[in-house]
């Protein structure tokens, strides 16, 4: 079972860097759909990811159609949008034969509306009070969703990784 965080045309290097750090800590693949609003060599991007970049599998895709065409047959796609009917805790993320892809939109505009209309059954949302904010921060949203998927997957091998090999906490 493999999890992917997919960013559609991300604009802010700090968000992408923070998401890369989450990916490093959760063994999650990071997929980036171009065009990017920054260079992957950007100093702000590197600072946000600190020294974790070499620990993250990063795939880049030239556009959304190319990404969709490269989804494997066992890929299960979820579109993260505040306009979805189901919440991020509703789907089952436990099929061990599947790869899970959580697609997040651009910070300023989200996912393209025509694309969202094609796949309404794949859309999930994080509940929020829209009268107080327009949207949650992208890196926070990615962390919320990936940790729910991992919780359902019993955290794979991560649950015990914080314990010292010879000095387990009791």
TrEMBL record:
Source taxon at top rank: Bacteria
Keywords, comma-separated and alphabetical: Cytoplasm, Methyltransferase, S-adenosyl-L-methionine, Transferase, tRNA processing
EC number: 2.1.1.207
Signal sequence segment: none
Native source organism of the sequence: Secundilactobacillus malefermentans
One example GO MF annotation: tRNA (5-carboxymethylaminomethyluridine(34)-2'-O)-methyltransferase activity
Name used for this protein in its record: Putative tRNA (cytidine(34)-2'-O)-methyltransferase
Gene Ontology cellular component list: cytoplasm
Residues the record lists as binding S-adenosyl-L-methionine: 80, 105, 126
Subcellular location: Cytoplasm
Gene3D superfamilies (UniProt xref): 3.40.1280.10
High-level lineage: Bacteria, Bacillati, Bacillota, Bacilli, Lactobacillales
Family: Belongs to the class IV-like SAM-binding methyltransferase superfamily. RNA methyltransferase TrmH family. TrmL subfamily.
Major location category of this protein: cytoplasm
């Amino acid at each position: 079972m493999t999890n992917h965080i997919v960013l559609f045309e991300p604009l802010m290097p700090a968000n992408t860097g923070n998401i890369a750090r989450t990916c490093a800590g959760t063994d999650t693949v990071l997929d980036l759909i171009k065009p990017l609003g920054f260079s992957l060599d950007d100093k702000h991007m590197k600072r946000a990811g600190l020294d974790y970049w070499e620990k993250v599998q990063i795939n880049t895709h030239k556009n959304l159609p190319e990404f969709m065409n490269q989804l494997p047959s066992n890929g299960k796609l979820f579109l993260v949008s505040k306009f979805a009917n189901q919440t991020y805790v509703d789907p089952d993320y436990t099929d061990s034969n599947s790869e899970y892809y959580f697609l997040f939109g651009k910070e300023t505009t989200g996912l393209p509306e025509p694309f969202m209309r094609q796949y309404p059954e794949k859309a999930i949302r994080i509940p929020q009070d829209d009268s107080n904010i327009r949207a949650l921060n992208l890196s926070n949203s990615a962390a919320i969703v990936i940790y729910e998927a991992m919780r359902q997957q019993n955290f794979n091998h991560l649950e015990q990784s914080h314990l010292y090999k010879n000095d387990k906490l009791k």
